Structure formats: structure tokens, C-alpha cells
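Lab meeting notes turned into a lecture example. A postdoc, R.K., suggested we walk through two folding results consecutively so the class can see how the record format repeats. The first protein's sequence and C-alpha cells come next.
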Amino acid sequence: MEKIQNYIDGKLGEPVSVEYFNNINPAEGKPYSLIPDSDERDVALAVEAARKAFHDWSTMPVSRRFDFLVKIADLIDRDLDKLALAESIDQGKPVKLAKVVDIPRASANLRFYATASLHFSSEAHLTDQEAINYTQHVPVGVAGCISPWNLPLYLFTWKIAPALAAGCTVVAKPSELTPMTAYLFSKLCMEAGLPAGVLNIVHGLGPKAGQAIIEHPEIVAISFTGGTATGKKIAATAAPMFKKLSLELGGKNPNIIFADCDFENAISTSIHSSFSNQGEICLCGSRIFVERPLYQKIVD
């Protein structure tokens, strides 16, 4: 059975504990690979690698960072079928959906943020004859990125791409429920020649590996997508340390249908928006508000 490996300081390797747990294929309910049971020791190694890589990466010409990210995007496009199959097995979604949404969007994320980094603009404000105020955007340091299971590579790259494009280095943890595409992604980063330590991927459980990322004093920014209860715990840990936080948590999204709508379009759109990806998307419609004159027709 294949053992997924951590990606730290440009190399793939076992967790410090040399312990693993099962990665379950949800379609069959059976394990098909093993996931590193990483802990604070693995996170410490990843942070040290990211810290060492930060100076060279943050001072590298933006055009060179652009080249690295676009090269990785090209490799994602090349391996579309392989990545889509891996995500289908890992997450339980149809291969077709992974091929037309998740994997192409992962590539697009890298291209979008790589291109955006080339086109920064700022405003200057004159204060009479006394001063000029301006904004300068600079990399903040090592970022911690923790992504969810429902759109594994799509949301993983959505977090790390802007951080890398901005000149930050990253310690990332994919969901322990869907780690395979992040593992394959680490191999693509190596193939693309991404400098060692710029991106580090630590696999494992949230209470162990994830919490260690949140608590580490040298990780200065946290991006997390997941449940509200976990987000509350992250905020409680990170806020007293004055870390920059981006928390995308649970919600309750209504579809709103008015009486003068295009009825057939409203029905088909509501079905698609509620059940796409098995309904496992944070912005899927989870309830429907219908204007009263159309209520019974919609129910029927």
C-alpha cells in the first residue's frame, strides 16, 4: 500500500514518528493508502525550512516567482487525468467533475495569482507640503494554510498560490480525508524546481499537525477553510498571538426565488446549486425562499 509522504525543505520523507493511519476510499469504505501521522516535530521542521527559504524567495524578482508558479500550473494541466482520478478516489466525486472543475481550477488559481503579482499598483496621498503617504505591500513571512476536503486541490492551491505569489513561504496541511492530490502536487513542485523550503506540506490530523501550525510562533499568518467550531478554536489560539487570520467557516445559504422568475431556469439552477459536488460546497444553496404566489408550484 502506498505511503503518502510529507514534503519538507524540498524533499519527500516520513513523519518523525514514522507512524501512519489509513486513507479510506469512500466509495468502497476500504483503505487504499497510508497518511503520515505528523505532529509538532514535523511542523517545526517545516517552519524552519520555510523560515530559511523566506529571504531568497521574498527578495526574488516577481517575474521569477511568476515563472515557477506558471510552470507548476503547466504540470497540473499535463497531469489532468491522473490528478482527477486521484481526487475521485480520495474524495468520492465523479472523475468527470474533477476533470472539469477541481483540477482545471487549481491550475487557474496558480496562473491568476502569478499574473496578479506582476500588476501591483498603489496610490500616494499628499498631505499639503508636509508629507507623502503611500502603501507598500511586502511579504509578511511564513504563512500557514489549512485546506478542507470537499474540493481538495482546488482549495489547497487557492490558499498557497496567493501566499507564494506575494513572496511568503508556506507550511500547508491538506485535509486528512483527502491528502492524495496534495501529495501529487508536491511532486510537481519538485519537478518544477521550486526552491527548497518555499512550500512545505505536512500531512496529518487537525488536533495534532493542524494545531501545531496554528500555535507555532514563527507562522505569522493563517488561512483556514472548514467548520465553525474549528475556526473558533483557531481564532482563540491565534488572536492573542496577533497572527493575521483568514477564516472561511460554515454558513447557511438561501436561494431566493421571486414570483416573476424564469421558472424552469430557477428550478434547474436551484437543483444544480444545491447538489453539485453532492452538495459538498460551502456556497451551495441549503434552503430556498420562495415568494408566496409561486410557492406551491415550486413545492410541486
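The second example is placed directly after the first for contrast:
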Amino acid sequence: MIKTVVGSFDTFSEAAAAARDLRGAGFLDSDVNVIANNTRAIGREEKAVEEKSSGTATGIVAGGALGGAAGLAVSLMGLAIPGIGPILAAGPIAAALAGAGAGAVAGGLIGGLTDLGVNETHAEFYAEAVRRGAALVTVRADESRADEAEQIIRRHGAFDIEDRVLQWKSAGWKGYDPKSEPFTFEEIERDRTLYHAAPRGPAAEIGRMENS
């Protein structure tokens, strides 16, 4: 039985490190995907350009150092998904999202996740997480290695998506809306500050779906 394990991260660097270790543990490149909101990187670049001194910008190059740290730089693809905003994607899902019509609707990411075996309800949670600035790692694993994949993802700080959804709802979130506007740089910074300090680690709920 093949299972899809999904981890949600507050930062791209955490997700990239998890992807690196999954590959280092022998999981195939064709079974590992990374999807990350890129608004913060773009926002920081723009801010750095505005504040540059001596003609030298200090911002992060989107997909540069972070992608390289995970060996992803050559495969990272920049995309824009309506309702979610600019993202970086690596792995088979990148080609799927870039396919004809895949990114033309806000449901493009949800469709990409459900194609990987994620149920639609959780796909909506994960899409909302990306809209709010998060990064995802998915890995297809044989049932015998699913626990190992989960342990690697937990070790790199995946947060509990169910707890995060409860936090969103307590702040007024009514559920995933494909017509929602993408989060701005400021909104993502606010949410990251609010949620990044939440308890994570061993108690984190890692999504695991069976593939037929």
C-alpha cells in the first residue's frame, strides 16, 4: 500500500531541509514535492531594494539560497495561482501545476494535492496554509516506510494542520474560499509571528492518506 505523507511548515527553509533529508534517506525525487508561498521572499526583496545602500540589495533571492540548501534550486519553478498568490514548487507537482489550465483557477493547488492522494478536505486546509505563507512537503511512501517519512517531517518542525485550522477558525475563518484574495506580505508576516511560536514537534499531526 502506498501512502502520501504531508507536512506543513511555517518556513520554506524548514520544508527544504525536510525534503533534503527525505531524499537523503532514499525516498525518490519523483515521490517528493515541495510547495511554498513566495510572497514573503518577494516582499523582502522589494523592501531590500527600497532600503539598499551603496547600490547593494540585501534581500533573499527567491528560490536561491533556500532552494540550493535542499538541492532544489535547479528544479524550483515559480508560479502564480489565483487566490493563493506566488509560489515556488519542486517535484512532479510543479509540472502538474504548470500544465495547461492547472493554475488558471484557485483550485489548481487543491487539484494537484488531490491527484497526489490527499483528500479534498485536507487539500483545502493545506491550500489555505500556503495562502497564509506556509510551505508543504509531500512524499509518497510504501506503507512500510510511512512512519520513517513522518519522523523526518516532524523532526524539521512541521506544525499540526488540525490545530492551525482551529486557530484560524477562532479568528473568524469560515473555510477555504477559492475567491479569496492572496495574503499580502504584511498579512503573512503577522500570521507567521502569531503562529510560529505555537507548540510543534512530536505532537504535530502529519497528514497521511492511502493511495488506491
